[in-house]
Amino acid sequence: MATTTSPAHGASPLSGSRHFVNRADHGDEIARVITFIFAASVVLITLLLVLSLWQGSALARHKFGFSFFVTQVWDPNAGIFGALPFIYGTLVTAVVSLLIAVPLGIGAAIFLAELAPARVSDTLEFFIDLLAAVPSVIYGVLGIFLIVPLMRSYIEPALKKTLGFIPLFQGPAYGIGFLTAGIVLAVMIIPYIISVSREVLLSVPRDQREAALSLGATRWESTWKVVVPFARTGIMGSIFLALARALGETMAVTMVIGNTPQISASLFASGYSIAAAIANEFNEASSPLHSQALIELGLVLFLLTFILNGIARLLIIATSQRGSGTANA
Amino acid sequence: MKRFAGIALVVFGLAAALWADSTLSINGAGASFPNPIYTKWIADFQKKNTSIQINYQSIGSGGGIKQVTEGTVDFGASDGPMNDDQLKAFQDKHGFGILHFPTVLGAVVPSYNIPGVNAELNFTPDALAGIYLGKITKWNDPAIAGANSGVKLPADDIVVVHRSDGSGTSYIWTDYLAKVSGDWKTKVNKGASVNWPVGLGGKGNEGVAGVVKNTPDSIGYVELIYAIQNKMPYGKVRNSAGTFIKADLESVTAAAAGAAKGMPEDFRVSITDAPGKTAYPISSFTWLLIPQKFSDAAKRDALKGFVKWMLADGQNEVEALSYAKLPKEVIAMELKALNNVQ
Amino acid sequence: MNARLRWRKFLSNFMLTMTGVCAVVSVAVLFFILGCLVYQGGTSINWNFFTKLPVPVGETGGGMANAIVGTGELLILATLFGVPIGFFGAVYLAEFSGSAMAFVVRYAADLLNGVPSIVIGIFAYAVAVHPFGHFSTYAGGFALGLMMIPITLRSTEEFLLAVPRTLREGAMALGASKWKTIVTVIVPAAYRGILTAILLAVARVAGETAPLLFTAFGNTYWSKGLKDATSSLPAVIYSYALSPYDDWHRQAWAAGLVLLVLVLVINIVARGILSRGISVPR
Fold first, then answer.
1. In the structure, what pLDDT confidence band is assigned to residue A11 with cuts at 50, 70 and 90?
2. Which of A74, B83, B304, C206 allows an S-S link to A261, with CB 3.0 to 4.6 Å?
3. CATH number assigned to the domain covering C67-275
4. Does the predicted TM-score (pTM) go above 0.90?
């Protein structure tokens, strides 16, 4: 991963003993208390964050209840707020991005983990990590000045010509919209999928591959039918991790999605995502209800990413444990 | 770690040296439509008053109203006046009121992109309302064609474009539509961000212009200065006297002239659909929003000084940027009202 | 039979080639982005860009000195706030904590790590802007610092745990107390890794825009101090890119190039430190 350095990947955080003999020392007690305060403040900050989102949206939650999630009118003028178009836009762009990023990312990960010599693999991984570090707003700039015109003039008309019978590819091609946002997102999440999948694939024990090869499988067969299934859960984990990133991504999406709270079957249509709505409207929401509705959107986004990150972590831990378990057996 | 701490210290030292000057800093935020003239004014004002530094961030009119109410900025700016609820919210929060000061005038124009049509189109109020309500869907609809005899309009679907962010431009546009169409008033009403019945959203004037320029058969509304700068075609609109009139400095000034006579004390006036044969109907003032009381006297005086300068010397700079000057009567009223800022 | 084998061999070669294509395409994106920014923004970068303030639309010249310094200030503040919490929290986890507390802290950190940056912005507005009544550099640094905490904490903990047991035991056997062991043996042994983690965290937040919109806000001049709103590179890129002026678009490209180079250089330096390190198991 680019953002966290995890040297002991795969090691369960709870495994291994780190406690050495306790020695009575006054300094120890002080050090323990001081570091405890810092550790506890992490928990405190997180709780405070959840609390502030919860309380900050109380008015909107009481006023709209569950209908907030299933109605689609967002009318600040009339004080009516339904989040469905934002939830829809967030999910659609995320799905589009996964459809592009998953095959590419896993393909690249297989190459890095299975085929490339260690030196090449490490070099490429280095560039992938750098790619993951490119700031979101830069993707946004490239999006509006390069990708949008490209989509409008070439890609969307071509899709319309060839696949126009599917409702997904109908309607006018503006260049901005779900499809463009999904493509920009895809580029942004590919590095995450590659990095994590590569690590997971590398943790698959050697003997699995060798057994398959010795039975006469081709290199691809041993990879696709033995190694990849072995690492399946971990790869799924990387996908969930990428999905969580995609959902929460703000700036690049805001700049290319079109910012229209509408639900449309066409991927060419413009839409809106949760994060983009907050970025655009939070500073200018002049009625309390409007701000609260936006904070509730933030809460929804928080819960979505929280759940996805949780699933991802479980899957990744499960695979690495399975990997090391078999290797030891 | 030590080396890092050293670097941090050096950088902090440098930064501290920069702040050691004694200039006064005033923060303001709001409308993006007058941003070009505001940044120019501020830069010119600062050349004469080097000890005053005014930071204006163009975050949109809604943002200007919100942030000045929250007290996070010293003054706000908006293309639409604050409504009574917003004024009350400010009063309740601070215990004193907030004043509007008109700065310049501008116009919003319907801009279009119809392949094969180069003529300057005429729009009736009903046509504009019908298009934005989604009732008029074809360019050759009689409501449009009737006012444009001699122009061959295509039988294509109209692509409607509007602003996606809360904007003063939208406020002016919807304020106008709500005045000329009962249907619009009941279904959508006026506001910086409304629930649009049809159309695509573009962020900022740039977004709207981008979509209009690149989408055949589209119509969108942008600020006059923007249409001129980007050489976008825009149409005439029929005013309340029944003439089709093009937005320019004279027609916008004419719209303000009528309003100048009946200008209310608080300057909260809408001049859309203004009377007068030569008045362009989608015109508007844009306002600075200044709290009545300042706890920091130096800040108050600096800001008052800026407003005074803007009403005098500043007005000579506006036409170069395609804004219209304020009427003399309004300037006189404002100078009086400025005394209420304490 | 032979045909089938040939087919399998062909399929194998074909698919393996495709995976290589995937890898090359992914890496090529990085160079494409870099190339684009250099092409579009390179010509607008000159001495003024780094030393001058922005000018009103229509006037030529001007630069982004305040945004560059603003970004620097924000990053320092973020580091001063985020790193101590992350670092000492990690020391607690690695050296003192019981497993229940460790689980809770890690869980909280992972939760915080997954929070979308825009949501961090809402939170920072609620606790660091709203109560004080003004946007400030502090608030921006706070928001970015929040994002640095989990990254620093989790990585530092991993690096501390990776210090060989023999080193600890050696120190303890010599009679050093636990905290002395930590200060004199364990942290020095892991410091390269920790430094890398901190630098990567800085690089990660350097390009963040969303949390700054509601906290550091923006400023057309030099910030008047840490209590004043400040300009920052990412926020300026965002507003300039969406503006209607070609001149500002060029500036946005140039600022994008500067920001990208900054982020990439920090990344490369960080990884360089790590690869020369001793205490890092791969």
1. very low
2. A74
3. 1.10.3720.10
4. no
A144 interaction partners in chain C (CB closer than 8 Å): 241-242
Q: Kindly state the DSSP code that residue A224 receives in the 8-state scheme.
A: I
Contacts (Cβ under 8 Å, ≥6 apart) of A162:
none
Please give the share of chain C, as a percent, with pLDDT higher than 70: 96
Token pair in block for residue A152: 């409008």
Where do we find the tokens 């700031």?
A: A135
| Residue in A with minimal Cα distance to B88 | A287
Closest CB from A174, A280, A286 relative to B200: A174
Q: Which uninterrupted H or E stretch holds C143?
A: helix C137-161
A10/A200 Cα distance (integer angstroms): 8
> To the nearest whole angstrom, how far is the Cα of B199 from the nearest Cα of chain A?
9
Q: Are residues B93 and B133 in the same domain?
A: no
**Mean pLDDT in residue range A291-295:** 92
> Is A278 an 8 Å CB contact of chain C?
yes
Contacts of A249 (CB under 8 A, 6+ apart): A136, A185, A188, A275, C116
Sheet strands (E) in A110-240: none
Q: Is the Cβ of A101 closer than 8 Å to some Cβ of chain C?
A: no
For residue B194, give the 3-state DSSP assignment: coil
Is A283's CB within 8 Å of B194's CB?
no
Whether C126 and A52 lie within 8 Å, measured CB to CB: yes
Cβ contacts of B293 within 8 Å, gap of 6 or more: B94, B96, B341, B342
Average pLDDT over residues B230-255: 90
Quickly state the pLDDT bin for A10 (edges 50, 70, 90).
Answer: very low
Contact partners, residue A61, CB within 8 Å, separation at least 6: A68, A292, A296
How confident is the model over C151-161, as a mean pLDDT?
Answer: 91
CA nearest to A280 within chain B:
B165
Rounded average pLDDT over C191-198: 90
A170 CA: distance to closest CA in chain B (Å): 15
The CATH number linked to B303 is 3.40.190.10
pLDDT band (50, 70, 90) for residue A263: confident
- Rounded to the nearest angstrom, the minimum Cα separation between C143 and chain B is 17
Q: How many domains does chain A have?
A: 2
Indicate if B247 and B114 belong to the same structural domain: yes
Would the pLDDT of B313 be above 50?
Answer: yes
What is the strand order of the sheet B218-223 is part of?
B52-58, B24-30, B75-78, B283-291, B98-113, B218-223, B159-163, B200-202
Closest residue in chain C to residue B202, using alpha carbons only: C242
Judge whether A4 is closer than 8 Å to chain B, CB to CB: no
Residue C279 pLDDT > 50, yes or no? no
Whether residues C244 and B204 touch (CB distance < 8 A) is answered with yes
The answer to whether residue B209 sits within a structural domain is yes
Q: Which of A149-158, A177-186, B139-148, C8-17 has the lowest mean pLDDT?
A: A149-158
Name the one residue in this structure whose structure tokens are 């019981």.
C98
Range of the domain at B44: 30-48+55-105+292-340
Nearest-Cα distance to chain B for C221, in Å, is 7
State the sign of the Cα–Cα–Cα–Cα dihedral A69, A73, A74, A76.
Answer: negative
pLDDT above 70 as % of chain A: 89
Sign for the pseudo-dihedral over CA of C159, C160, C165, C169: positive
Cα end-to-end distance, chain A, whole Å: 29
Segments forming the whole domain that contains residue A312 = 84-328
Tracing tokens 């449309």 back to the chain, one arrives at A264
The CATH number of residue A217's host domain is 1.10.3720.10
B contact test, residue of A71, A77, A284 with most B CBs within 10 A: A284
Q: Do you know the residue count of chain B?
A: 342
Do B331 and B223 fall into the same domain?
A: no
User: Are A89 and A52 found together in one domain?
Assistant: no
- Tell me whether residues C244 and B39 touch, CB distance under 8 A: no
Max alpha carbon distance in chain B (Å)? 80
